[in-house]
Each structure stands twice: as C-alpha cells, then as structure tokens.
From TrEMBL:
<feature type="transmembrane region" description="Helical">
    <location>
        <begin position="28"/>
        <end position="46"/>
    </location>
</feature>
<dbReference type="InterPro" id="IPR002293">
    <property type="entry name" value="AA/rel_permease1"/>
</dbReference>
<protein>
    <submittedName>
        <fullName>Amino acid/polyamine/organocation transporter, APC superfamily</fullName>
    </submittedName>
</protein>
<feature type="transmembrane region" description="Helical">
    <location>
        <begin position="213"/>
        <end position="230"/>
    </location>
</feature>
<feature type="transmembrane region" description="Helical">
    <location>
        <begin position="360"/>
        <end position="378"/>
    </location>
</feature>
<feature type="transmembrane region" description="Helical">
    <location>
        <begin position="313"/>
        <end position="334"/>
    </location>
</feature>
<dbReference type="InterPro" id="IPR053153">
    <property type="entry name" value="APC_K+_Transporter"/>
</dbReference>
<feature type="transmembrane region" description="Helical">
    <location>
        <begin position="145"/>
        <end position="163"/>
    </location>
</feature>
<dbReference type="GO" id="GO:0016020">
    <property type="term" value="C:membrane"/>
</dbReference>
<dbReference type="GO" id="GO:0022857">
    <property type="term" value="F:transmembrane transporter activity"/>
</dbReference>
<feature type="transmembrane region" description="Helical">
    <location>
        <begin position="170"/>
        <end position="193"/>
    </location>
</feature>
<dbReference type="Pfam" id="PF13520">
    <property type="entry name" value="AA_permease_2"/>
</dbReference>
<keyword id="KW-1133">Transmembrane helix</keyword>
<keyword id="KW-0472">Membrane</keyword>
<feature type="transmembrane region" description="Helical">
    <location>
        <begin position="58"/>
        <end position="79"/>
    </location>
</feature>
<feature type="transmembrane region" description="Helical">
    <location>
        <begin position="424"/>
        <end position="444"/>
    </location>
</feature>
<feature type="transmembrane region" description="Helical">
    <location>
        <begin position="384"/>
        <end position="404"/>
    </location>
</feature>
C-alpha cells in the first residue's frame, strides 16, 4: 500500500485502534441510549412505512387498520419478551444464528444465519429507500427521477461511516434521532389533544366498518384482508432481533444494557405505530402521489399554523424521519457483518469475513452488505412498495427457529431449572405466534415477489453447504498430515541429523550466518511438514532460525475477555515447540510474535528488529496448494504469504514460498 493510499485511508476511516489498550472496547461500545439508536432504530423507523403499508393494503376498509395496529402492538410485546429470555441465556450475543446452532443443530443455525443475512441487506435497502421517500415528499414531483441516485449516495456515506467504527457511525446520527423522537411525540400528542373528542367516533366507526366488511367479504374474507394488511406491516418487527444479536457491541453489564434497550424499543415502537395509525383517522388523511402518509399527516396538521412555523416543523420532521431511516440501516451494517463473521468462524462462509480491520470492524462484511444493498436499491429503483414485499419473510424464519430452540432448551433443563415451565410458556407463545406470522407472510407475499427472497436465501444456503464441505475436506487432510507428522517425528529428526553436517548442539551464535526467518501459523502438521521440507531442501545452508507467528483477533474473539492474553499464551507455546525442534538439530533458534488484525502488516512491523540483528536473512513461508481454479480458492483462502512477499520485495528482502500440496504431503514417507 502506497503512502498516498495510507493517507487517504486514514483520512476517510480514521487512525488504527490499539488492541492492547484496555479502553479500546469501552471506547467503541454502546450504552443503552446509543444501543437504542443503533439497534432499535430499525424497528422504530418502520413506523415511517409500516402503518402506511397497512393503510394501502386495506384500501376502502381503512378503519380496520386500528385492529391491525392493536394486533401489531401485542405482537411487539410478545416477541420482545421472548427475546429477553434469549438475551439472558446468551449473554455474549444470542442472535438467531447462534441460538439455532447451539440449541437445535449447526445446519439449522446456518439456515437461520443465511435468512438473517438476506434480511439485513433488505433492512439497509428499505431503510435507505424509505428515507429517500421522506426527503422527496416535500420536493416537487418532477424531482422524483433523482431519488435513486440520492438513495445510493446515502448508502455510500453510511458504508464509510461504518468502516470508521461502530460508535462513530451511531454517534454521528444521534442528534437527528432525538429530533425525530421529539417531533413525532409532539405530532401524536397534538393529534390526540386537538381531536381527542373524535376518539369515541373512531372506535364506533371501526366497529361499524368491521361489521360492514364481514357482510361484504364474509368472515373468512375479512380475516384474509386483516392478515394481508398485518403481513404487509410485518417489517415492523424486524429490528427486535437486532438487540440480542448486537449484545457484543454493548457496554457492560451487557445483559442489563440489552434488556433495557429491548424495553425502550418495545414501548417506543408500539406507541409510534398505533399512535400514527390513530392520527391518520383523526386528521382524515389519504394517500397522495409522491408523498408518504406521514408527510400528508403533517401537512394536514399544520394547515392552520403560522406558515413559517408550520413549514419549519414539516421540514424538520420529515428530515428527521429520513435520518432515522438512515440510522435504521445501521442494524444491517452492525449485525449483518457479525452474523457473517460467526458463520465464517464456523466455516459456512469464507473465513476472511471473520477478520477485523485496523478500526476493529468487520470490513469485508460491511463492504459486502453495502454492495449487496446497492444492487437491491438499484434494481428495485428504490421502490419501498416493492421492497416491503421482499422484506420480513426471512426474519420470521429466524424468529421461529430461535423460539423453537428456546422451547427445546427449557424442556431439556426442566429438572435443573425450577422456573422452566413459565419460561417455556413465554418462548412457546413466541414460537406459535412467529410461526403463524411466517406462514401468513409467505402465503400473502409469495406470488407478489416473496418467492424472490426465498430463492435467494435458498441459493445462499446451497453456497454455505458447498463452502462448509470444502473446508471440512481441507481440515480432514490437514488432520491426517498432523497425525502422520506426529508418528514420524522421532524418525524424521534422526533422519535429518544423519543427513545434516552438524549433529551436536552449539552455543556459539554468528549473526552473520545465513538465517531462515520462517513464517508459521501454529504448531500444525502443515507447519511441521513445511519446516522439514526447508531443512531437507537447504541442507546446512541456514545456521540460524527465527520463527514468526501473528495471532489474529477476529470479530468472534474480539469481544471476549482477555482475548489478547489467551492468544499470546497459545502462540508462545506453539513457537516454543518449533524452537525446541531446531535446537534438537543443533541450530540456533528464537521466535517473534505479534497480535493484530492483519498478518502482513504485523509481520512488517517485526522485520526491522530481525534484519538489524541477523544480517543474512531469507524469509520463508509455506502456501497450501488447493485443487480447483485459483479464483475460486482465492475467495476461500487468504494467500497471505503472497501479500507479505510483495511487501518484503519492496524492502529488498528475499522471500521463498514453498508450495505445499496436501495430496503429496499425505503420500510422502521421508524428507530427503
């Protein structure tokens, strides 16, 4: 990376964060309020389009939206209560992927994770698109042609903010989130206080509308209409899962922080949805081309206000709506990469997705989420009406699997937990409700485009199965090599001693002698095979050996306690074994190590110290040779040694890469 690129990266993304600084995680973690902003905004923002979709679906039977709103409010509290139990059982993060994996099976967990990833992409897409709708609601209709470009620009900004780090991305948008709360609370209270006398007539009209609809459509037709409207507003619940999945991003004590966040989310969301639906009735608002329902509501409410104050309130409220929707996209950017990282850690996705950047964020995951959302927004033309059809199906797959896993867990521990029955009833109710909603949403949305979501999710599941199979195959081969190396260790050392000129240990160290700086990744069969290959190919060429290993802190391990100390201890044990082996052969050996998020960067930091001490160095590393095309294997394996070679080449240092064929390694009986 050139100096210019480094400067641009530092300017855009910020300075690297120090893993060894104990205050680093506290600096980027979220307190209750910021957690509410970053994780609860997805659900709360749905009040900007959820009630509108309910209204549009009901057509001339809009009074039934009160009934749908009440059912929605009850649903919110049932789901949030059942997820609070998941938070307590999984204090380090209990998203749908982890819950289903641990409580049901890894394969079921993979399906849940795949569904979540697609849902988070749609969360980003619909939030940004709906935010653009809010902005363009007070612009002339002819400006609608610029809406897609505007939405894509906002998406780009959000992607950069998230690459800078979690807390910065949330903090930057918090002031407008507060303005949204104040303006919408004021709007709802204003509607109730100025038109409160009409509440009774609204209730009566709702009952009359229900009776009339039953006479017109029949009882089953009425239920179908209500459930269709309910399914179109199902996106309201999608942000609830985000709190349990985002626990690792929260400030200690995380469980209390998460539960308080969940409580705030449930209260604010139910009040916003039902409050806005009733306000529509009180002001008798109807859909208008190029405007959202909330825009029409505000315009009607301020009709008799002072023009300057009224227009200011309109602009401030709609802009805050847009900002909240943009904040809601944070749910996808915060939790999508985390799910991706967890799946990558379990080998369902390329392992590079578990790596952290120097800003301690899942850079690859954030970029993938941003790119995927770009294509969704571009192909849908930022149409909320179309995206809402694709939306919310997948999250109910995760909801249902998570609740089923919890029910299974409480039943299994019934002898150890005295309160198992009450807990089972809570999650059991959640399971029945979310499964019912899932089936309803699939039936209602399938022909209108919901099949697209199911098809894409199925394709991702198939890809995950392929990747897992590939990693399992490689893992089995490496395990067999490890077994062979352990069995042949004494024989191999003796054989090398017989073929090398030096057989007795020496205490004299000549720092001008040829020195092999060997890059290793743990004390593994592949590492041992690579070492013995070097010794047999370069007989008695190298008199000194330096082993380098870099411990990687990935997204899965970063939030665990004392992660740096744990990794350091393991590295020291592994490197000590290599040094012992070389000493057995009569050569000088020592090791160096580092802890970080980028292997190549950390190696370069160690290099000056080694080259200053040893004057004739050759850097040596092994690289597994995988079957199949290079492009395909490049996506699944990091090929870090080539990146290190390029950087050392610029420093004028020699690097030798030893290709390691697993097939040949399994067939080798000696190292001559």
């Amino acid at each position: 990376m050139t100096d210019v690129i480094k400067k641009v990266k530092k300017t855009v993304l910020g300075n690297p964060l120090d893993l060894k600084d104990s205050s680093t995680f506290r600096h980027i973690s979220l307190i209750v309020f910021f957690a509410w902003v970053g994780l609860g905004s997805d659900a709360l923002s749905s009040s900007c389009y959820g009630p509108e979709e309910i209204y549009k679906t009901l057509g001339v039977h809009v009074n039934l939206s009160i009934i749908v709103g009440l059912i929605t409010m009850v649903t919110i509290f049932i789901i949030s209560t059942s997820y609070s139990q998941i938070i307590k059982l999984f204090p380090h993060g209990g998203g749908g992927y982890l819950v289903a994996t641990r409580l049901i099976s890894p394969n079921v967990g993979m399906i849940s994770g795949s569904a979540l990833l697609i849902d988070y992409v749609l969360t980003i897409s619909i939030s940004v698109s709906s935010g653009a709708d809010a902005i363009f609601s007070f612009l002339p209709y002819e400006y609608q042609s610029y809406k897609v470009a505007f939405a894509l620009s906002i998406l780009g900004i959000l992607t950069i903010l998230n690459l800078r780090g979690v807390k910065e991305s949330v903090t930057a948008l918090t002031p407008i989130f507060v303005i949204f709360l104040i303006s919408h609370i004021f709007l709802i209270i204003y509607a109730f206080t100025t038109h409160g006398s009409q509440l009774q007539s609204v209730a009566v009209k709702t009952g009359t509308e229900l009776t009339g609809t039953v006479h017109q459509l029949g009882i089953y037709g009425t239920i179908f209409l209500i459930m269709k409207a309910y399914s179109m507003g199902a996106g309201t619940y999608t942000g609830i899962e985000a709190v349990s999945n985002g626990i690792p991003n929260l400030r200690e004590p995380r469980v209390k922080t998460a539960i308080k966040t969940m409580r705030l989310l449930a209260i604010s969301l139910s009040a916003a949805v039902l409050g806005l639906i009733i306000s529509y009735f009180l002001f008798n608002v109807h859909m208008q081309p190029g405007k959202t329902m909330n825009a029409v509501l505000i315009s009607t409410a301020i009709a008799n206000w002072n023009p300057i104050f009224g227009q200011t309130f309109l602009y401030v409220t709609l802009i805050s709506e847009a900002a909240l929707l943009f904040v809601a996209a944070q749910t996808g950017f915060l939790d999508g990469p985390r799910v991706m990282s967890n799946m990558a850690h379990d080998s369902w996705l390329p392992r590079s997705f578990s790596m952290l950047s120097d800003r301690l964020v899942s850079q690859n995951g954030i970029l993938i989420m941003g790119i995927a959302a770009y294509f969704v927004i571009w192909m849908s033309k930022a149409s909320v009406a179309f995206l809402v059809v694709l939306y919310s199906i997948n999250v109910f797959i995760t909801f249902s699997l998570s609740q089923f896993g919890m029910v299974k867990h409480w039943f299994q521990v019934r002898k150890q937990d005295k309160k198992w029955l009450s807990k089972l009833l809570i999650n059991g109710t959640g399971f029945l409700l979310t499964t019912f909603i899932l089936l309803t949403v699939i039936v209602m949305k399938f022909d209108e485009g919901g099949w697209i979501t199911i098809l894409i999710t199925g394709a991702l599941v198939g890809l995950a199965l392929y990747i897992k199979g590939h990693y399992n195959k490689i893992g089995e081969e490496i395990g067999r090599i490890q077994k062979i190396m352990n069995e042949k260790m004494p024989e191999t050392i003796a054989e090398l001693n017989n073929n090398l000129k030096r057989k007795a240990p020496t205490t004299k160290i000549d720092y001008t002698d040829m020195t092999a700086v060997i890059l290793v990744n743990g004390y593994t069969g592949v590492g041992l095979y690579s070492l013995f290959k070097i010794l047999s190919k370069f007989k008695d060429v190298y008199k000194n050996f330096v082993f380098i290993q870099v411990g990687i802190v990935d997204a899965d391990s970063f939030h665990q306690d004392a992660v740096v100390d744990t990794i350091t201890e393991k590295i020291q044990q592994d490197l000590g074994k290599y040094v012992y082996l070389i000493n057995q052969l009569g050569y000088n050996a020592e090791y160096r190590y580092a802890i970080g998020t980028d292997v190549a960067e950390e190696v370069l930091k160690i290099v000056p110290e080694i080259t200053e001490k040893y004057h004739n160095t050759t850097f040596i590393g092994g690289q597994l040779v995988f079957s199949g095309t290079y492009r395909a294997s490049r996506l699944l394996h990091n090929y870090t040694i080539f990146s290190i070679q390029r950087r050392l080449y610029k420093l004028g240092l020699t690097t030798i890469i030893i290709p390691i064929s697993l097939r040949k390694a399994l067939q080798v009986n000696h190292y001559k």
